[in-house]
From TrEMBL:
Record-linked PANTHER family: CBB3-TYPE CYTOCHROME C OXIDASE SUBUNIT FIXP (PTHR33751), CYTOCHROME C4 (PTHR33751:SF9)
Segments forming domain Cytochrome c: 29-134, 146-226
Lineage of origin: Bacteria, Pseudomonadati, Pseudomonadota, Gammaproteobacteria, Pseudomonadales
Name of this chain's protein: Cytochrome c4
Iron keyword on record: yes
Keywords: Electron transport, Heme, Iron, Metal-binding, Transport
Keyword Heme: yes
Length: 232
């Protein structure tokens, strides 16, 4: 019996020592790795919070429109002049262009495969989302005053407002031109002129008569125009 009690006492002592060692290890680990563990926990919480908020405001996170942000900017208000600004564009126009990319009527190494992957509901949703975004002025572009005046004259005599609206903010299937990216406008006008981009009917037939300087002047005016009857 004495030997049994000694053995039990030894086992209890071993558990007690092991427990103290384990506790000490946990304390040391907490001191050494606590900040990292806490950081990971906070990061995880932030991701979950963002996911919940995004889901509440517009669907699961990440949302489809976020794929457009790299080129087209936050909420469609890109600051680069190379890519089109999507914010405030008519939904009908945006949907039409996405379908054109998907069906091969327009081609682009980025937009074509992306549009092909979209469902009809995706296209409708993206078009509605960007159409509803508030437009920010194209403050990153500063036009030459001489080009600005020449461009205004060409836009007025060309009666661009007939299709694009009195303030050139777009209507129906015609895009918003006011505040659009300068380089993007130059390229699109040149593409219409040379036939590499087609328009509805003969709406853009006038571009055949434009010189390269005319195109730059028009793009300068449109990129600077706010759409509220005042140039920047």
């Amino acid at each position: 019996m004495k030997q049994i009690r000694q053995k039990q006492s030894g086992i209890r002592r071993w558990f007690a020592i092991s427990g103290l060692v384990l506790l000490g290890g946990l304390v040391l680990a907490g001191i050494s790795y606590g900040p990292q563990v806490l950081g990971y926990y906070r990061f995880s919480e932030a991701v979950e919070t963002t996911s919940r908020e995004s889901a509440a405001s517009g669907g699961p996170w990440p949302q489809l429109n976020e794929a457009c942000m790299l080129c087209h900017g936050y909420n469609g208000n890109t600051v680069t002049q190379l890519y089109p600004r999507l914010a405030g564009q008519p939904a009908a126009y945006l949907a039409q262009q996405l379908r054109a990319f998907a069906e091969g009527q327009r081609t682009n190494p980025i937009m074509s495969p992306l549009a092909m992957s979209l469902s009809a509901d995706d296209i409708t949703g993206l078009a509605a989302y960007f159409a509803a975004q508030t437009v920010s002025p194209n403050a990153a572009f500063s036009a030459d005053p001489v080009r600005l005046k020449k461009g205004e004259r060409l836009v007025t005599t060309g009666n661009c407002a007939a299709c694009h609206g009195a303030e050139l903010t777009g209507q129906a299937a015609f895009p918003r031109l006011a505040g659009q990216g300068y380089d993007y406008l130059v390229k699109q006008l040149a593409d219409f002129k040379h036939g590499s981009r087609k328009s509805m009917g003969d709406a853009m037939a006038f571009t055949a008569t434009l010189s390269d300087e005319d195109i730059k002047n028009i793009a300068s005016y449109l990129a600077s125009y706010r759409g509220d009857a005042h140039a920047q």
